[in-house]
Amino acid sequence: MVVSSKYKIIKYKKQDAKYTKVKKQKRNYYNESITALKEYMMQDFQNPTEKDWNNYAIKNGYLTSKTLGYLSEIGFNSMCRKIRIEINSKSGLK
Is residue 54 domain-resident? Predict the structure, then answer.
């Protein structure tokens, strides 16, 4: 990895391909967890509590509420509200 201190530009060399693979894997875990959260929320008409989601996530190998909130940069409860709005708009509910 080459870092230019003046402009904070990072250029990755060929040996840094492992970094790219790890980054892609993290995205997959995030996307899989969001998909699972949407499916979980479609089964119930209430948003899951952090405790309920964490229990489900740990049993099934998904990211926990704190991790999802951190990665989404809006928090778990806000993310659930947005997902609920999306689910309701698709099903025609308000």
Answer: yes
Q: How many whole angstroms separate alpha carbon 22 and alpha carbon 71?
A: 15
Is 64 within the bounds of a domain? Answer: yes
Tell me if 9 is assigned to some domain: no
Neighbour-count burial of 13, counting CB atoms closer than 10 A to its CB (0-12 exposed, 13-18 middle, 19+ buried): exposed
User: Do residues 57 and 63 make contact, with C-beta atoms less than 8 angstroms apart?
Assistant: yes
- What pLDDT band is residue 90 in, cutting at 50, 70 and 90? confident
The 10s digit of each residue's pLDDT in 40-60 is 999 888 899 999 999 999 999
Structural domain for 46, as ranges: 17-91
Q: CB–CB of 57/66 below 8 Å?
A: no
Structural domains in the chain (count): 1
Tell whether 11 is covered by a domain. no
SS3 79: helix
